[in-house]
Write a structure and sequence with these properties.
The chain has 317 residues and is mostly helical. The protein contains 12 helices and no strands. The chain is globular, with a radius of gyration of 20 Å. 45% of the residues are buried.
């Protein structure tokens, strides 16, 4: 048994054990015994109470900016679930359509990286270290790329181009791909948090929109193979949504880190930009060119870049 297979099996057993423990608990049984309306009302009430505690605590400790940044990263992560919804109605989509969606996502991410991370990162760097902003941001970029390189080497997963036809026959391959999506969502969420932590709400909003748009095809890429392998459609959508919910973790880390330690802001923005560029070059663009039919994806990338550039310009005034 390889290390990769062993790791996946351990994760699957851990998840199954946790689910079994929850289902066997007394509180869970009491919840199931409730009438449906009362059960859903109780769940909704508990959820709202937990959010009130979380957001209230963040507001008291860190202030408004952290709360807004964390909330924006949650919404961006939930877009993964939105992208997975077509799996409720289809088991497959055309290759050209899927490649075009990924190409547009790459264009959106490229524009957001340039205009919402790199340019303001250099400006902040010059304010703290006059004339050295570009060097500070460049160092951050390389650290971000090396971080994802290290994560790719250490954590078992498969890349986009290994599942490009969205017709996987191996359940383990699907779950390794899900791990890959989860790994890459962390720095994306962090980039949203870092942008809000800079105090420039416009950059934060633009980046949150960009990440949300980029998450839509990723959600579809996760859900469709699961449905094709016989998973319940709603469960497949739920799993896809969960892969995006690692983004609020990265978002919260990013926004609190740069809010508390303002001098690291240029490095943090460079880190987020480098990590995003790594994902674009390593995963998304190779996938759109994997079968030799790249023209749709190329034009989609350009359109995505233009749309994000225009949005950034409009929100800048």
């Amino acid at each position: 048994m390889t290390l990769t297979t062993k790791t996946v099996n351990q994760w699957q057993r851990y998840v199954e054990n946790q689910v079994a423990a929850i289902k066997s608990s007394e509180n869970y049984q009491k919840l199931l015994a409730m009438p449906p309306l009362k059960r859903w009302a109780t769940l909704a009430g508990l959820f709202l109470l937990s959010q009130l505690i979380v957001f209230g605590s963040l507001y008291v400790i860190f202030g408004k900016v952290v709360v807004i940044g964390f909330f924006a990263s949650i919404l961006a992560g939930l877009a993964t679930g939105l992208g997975a919804l077509p799996a409720l109605f289809f088991k497959d989509i055309s290759k050209n359509l899927f490649n075009s969606m990924l190409g547009a996502a790459a264009g959106v991410m490229l524009a957001a990286t340039a205009f919402s991370l790199l340019v303001p990162g250099m400006d902040y760097g010059n304010q703290i270290w006059p004339g050295k902003g570009i060097y500070i941001v460049s160092i951050g970029m390389m650290i971000g790329a090396l971080f994802l390189h290290y994560a790719d080497r250490q954590l078992p997963h498969v890349h986009f181009n290994s599942v490009s036809d969205v017709h996987l026959s191996s359940l383990k391959k699907v779950w390794l791909f899900i791990i890959a999506i989860t790994i890459h969502n962390f720095p994306e969420g962090m980039s949203v948090g870092v942008s809000f932590g800079s105090g420039e709400m416009k950059n934060g909003v633009v980046l949150a929109i960009a990440i949300a748009l980029q998450n839509i095809p990723e959600g579809l890429a996760v859900a469709l193979p699961l449905v094709g392998l016989g998973y319940n459609k709603w469960r497949a959508v739920g799993i896809a949504t969960l892969t995006g919910l690692v983004e609020p973790v990265g978002g919260l880390l990013g926004v609190t880190m740069v809010t508390i330690f303002e001098p690291i802001l240029p490095i943090a923005m460079g880190f987020a930009a480098g990590a995003m560029l790594f994902v674009i070059s390593e995963e998304i663009i190779p996938e759109t060119h994997s079968n030799g039919r790249s023209r749709y994806a190329t034009f989609a990338l350009m359109i995505g870049f233009i749309i994000m550039m225009a949005l950034d310009n409009m929100l800048g005034y």
